[in-house]
Fold this protein.
Amino acid sequence: MSRLYVAAVGDVSQANLALALECVEQEFQLPVVGLPAIAEPPGAFDERRAQYRAVDFLLAVVRSSPGDGKVVALTERDIFIPMLTFLFGQAQLGGVAALVSAARLRQEFYGLPADAAVFRRRLRTEVLHEGGHAFGLIHCPDRSCAMSLATSIQQLDLKQDAFCAGCRRALAERIREFRGNEI
Ligand SMILES: [Zn+2]
Ligand SMILES: [Zn+2]
């Protein structure tokens, strides 16, 4: 059975997990199952940067994959790779694991008052983005498309929590292949 899984890495609120699960269910049109929380990989914390290594987190997600689907995981930790200041998320292109970090999606992170609607839209956008990568989608030149590359919160906020028509078509094709593979 081709399915999608949603999981927390470490502590994530039920509300945010439910939000991610609902988003995955709506946008990828596949059965979605919640997984038990994945333990934070030991040693992923970088003392000097006070951030967590994204690769370690992604590998922990891969290791926790039940093997018959893709896993979209959520963390509250601020994640990075060495060449970048931070990441909103990371995924294996066409692989089994996608990871979204909620750490920089809240207005409070930028010293602004909390805004649940803004947080929700950003989380949905990044779930679509990293989930899209797991289905093999690459970055989209349309700045308003969820698959557009965002390296700042300003760029993220130019995006809608939806795919452009081209990406939606490409994704539908990948989902058909994914379903077909496992019959
Ligand atoms: Zn990307
Ligand atoms: Zn697009």
User: Anything to note?
Assistant: The pocket of zinc ion (ligand 2) is lined by residues 140, 142, 145, 147, 163-164, 166-167 (CB under 6 Å). The first helix runs from residue 14 to 28.
